[in-house]
């Protein structure tokens, strides 16, 4: 905790002072253009990754970057999505998974339900991912399975996102775009799903030179 307190001192004495105008403006309201849904994993920093400033990303985080289908739970996810899309009018929604995701490891090799009852129930929102992995990728080794599950889960959660009325409405009006990303911790690379190529493609390269995250089509 001492490190956090020292961090607060640094923020107030250095960071805040340098950006006082920004924070004063943000106190008047927010108008982020992107809803960024990602895992709670401590190794992901959405603002660092995207070079975003305070006020630019509306961030929703949980274990496994899951989006429960609308009506499945009365949780904070649905409320946050509704507010971001219908209230703030974000133009883009990003669902960002990441390499070495503990939640996806737990999906493929479930922990004891009596020890992790809440986690077990939560991961049921990735049941489609689990089923796809079982039915389509059973021949792959454990490392490949984890990487594929991370990608398939991003796509499954994008489908869940479409069940939210505010999202469905904004999509039908053409004022919202959905994006599936995967962040590779060890290289800093971010791959985006290309529906035409049916693959995740490195976002920072030109399409002609694009690298795919893996060769398996999904
Ligand atoms: Zn994770």
Automatic annotation (TrEMBL):
CDD domains: beta_CA_cladeB
InterPro entries associated with the record: Beta_CA_cladeB (IPR045066), Carbonic_anhydrase (IPR001765), Carbonic_anhydrase_CS (IPR015892), Carbonic_anhydrase_sf (IPR036874)
GO BP, sorted A to Z: carbon utilization
Cofactor(s) this protein requires: Zn(2+)
GO MF term set: carbonate dehydratase activity; zinc ion binding
Record note on cofactor: Binds 1 zinc ion per subunit.
Keywords, alphabetical: Lyase, Metal-binding, Zinc
Family annotation (Pfam families): Pro_CA (PF00484)
Recorded catalytic activity of this chain's protein: hydrogencarbonate + H(+) = CO2 + H2O
EC id: 4.2.1.1
Organism superkingdom: Bacteria
Binding site for Zn(2+): 39, 41, 98, 101
Family statement drawn from the similarity comment of this UniProt entry: Belongs to the beta-class carbonic anhydrase family.
Function description: Reversible hydration of carbon dioxide.
Name of protein: Carbonic anhydrase
